């Protein structure tokens, strides 16, 4: 059970971190019927953006903008969505997904914006591009406009929806292409302090929205993935129920066999004045002693295997199906303690039931059973 929970928590954490790379906990954009990938302008001087981290539950807020384009090489081309970011962008999570190079330098004091570009491993394979290579990036227009970009880094998330489309660059490049000022962006990305309190923070942000703003949470944006993770939780409950049933059945069987073998001893103890509750406690203690030794051994094996997998990543996964290259591990120590305590309590209750047979054993019959 320890390994099962460690894998479940590790997998959920890994998938959530990959989603948060390009999908903030909350995203605020202009309320419009425009459903294209080209953002509608949103000013920075709004009460919401000025409030920033003073909003209860908000830990970080950043401005971004997106614009569709086409990356081209002499032999290949790829449609991309350029996500423009500024100095306030949090690169911490994305750095963990880098497979080559580094993140773009954005926010330098150049009026035209940086031409450094971060692309995905999928795009690099498709375009046969590598770090340091210059690529023209074409934007729709009449006539089409092109910018010469330099690939400075390559990332890989394992999320096909992201890897196939998203490239990162300087937000000022998009501002210049859209003829926006430095105080105009495409949307705000908001990160919350506690993801478990996302709905409460969403309400606090919603109260500060202007009528022309739209608020979308990451759960709404990536609903299929979150529904899938919820299904994993339900499957884990079923699995734990089956494990508990099998473990309880085995312990009851062992205790019944033990009582059958010790039937003459039970008769002798009753003859010497032993009460039924006393004899039942003796067998219950024997059963619990076996459970505790089993738990100790199980904890050593479960935690040991989890730590080995976490460090050496021995068990691989197909990223096309599971979004990650190896079985992730996250040991939650409070959960380990709760599992151990719940197991002892459950087994104790289950073991108490078969000891009721002791009440029905007569001393004379028990002593005769020895012959």
From TrEMBL:
Stretches that traverse the bilayer: 237-260, 290-308, 329-353
Pfam families, alphabetized: FtsX
Family: Belongs to the ABC-4 integral membrane protein family. LolC/E subfamily.
Organism field: Spirosoma oryzae
Subcellular localization(s) per the UniProt record: Cell membrane
Major site of localization recorded for this protein: membrane
ABC3 transporter permease C-terminal domain boundaries: 238-363
Protein name: Lipoprotein-releasing system permease protein
One Gene Ontology CC term in the entry: plasma membrane protein complex
Keyword terms, alphabetized: Cell membrane, Lipoprotein, Membrane, Transmembrane, Transmembrane helix
Membrane topology note: Multi-pass membrane protein
GO annotation terms (biological process): lipoprotein localization to outer membrane
